[in-house]
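Entry 14. Ran structure prediction on the chain below.
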Amino acid sequence: MTCTGAAGGVPAQAVYDALEACFTPWKYSDIFPKKGLQYHNADVIRKVYVATFASVPVLRQVLETGERDVLLFTHHPVPPKKDETGDYGVIPPALLAAMAERGVSLFSYHIPMDCHPVYSPARTLALALGMEPYEPFYPQNNGYIGVLCRSPFQTAEEVRRRLEEVLGHRTSRYDFGGDALPGGQAAIMPGGARSTEIYRELRERDIRLFITGVTNERIDWVRAAHQEARRWGVTILGGTHCSTEMFAPRALAPFFRDLGLDTQYVPDAPNLDDL
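Output, structure tokens:
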């Protein structure tokens, strides 16, 4: 489907409608008050930038291009938490004013992206690792935001090394379930996995590796999850909140290309304290 407008632009409403049809946000609840369009600053879109968070560094990078009439699509509509025990950040008013002046719109899908069968952070990370997702798991907000996978890997250490290759930085490993991967199986839920109930389910399926984002035991909810992982013998790998979710917005390039729009990924620095 191509809907290119005048002078190489695409009507913004056509892009918004296509995103809504793809992600069906009405099916899901969310932790953020607004799903989809956050700030509408241009009636025509000439290019799309994608990122994990609408963070200050990401917004500055987009504004520094000097381009006008662009859309920033992010998984999270706000900056990340400075500390996983706190709240998400807010976009500074000066940046919001600059976005309005430059015609930079912001559109975000959080849980609708988490639950998407093609563009979810879980599925896209699995594919980046060379794993085969075969079943959704981890119910949340009226959908499933994780995946169970088969892989060619025989050990958790092999997966850890591969995870570091695709993320480009160090990771964490909490060896609660040993190194062997029966059947090459693993579970993936990027970002932050607060559930303490999944580890029994995973071990009952003989899945002994869980890959997520935030794993630092100084955080209360992480410590509680680790207690259950230790109890049921499930090893945990962590890759930070930002990095484990970055493959989802990057996967949207073909979607926007079909609308007649070029797409560029905006990198952001991961918080290694997540590990």
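The first strand starts at residue 10 and ends at 11. Will compare against last week's run tomorrow.
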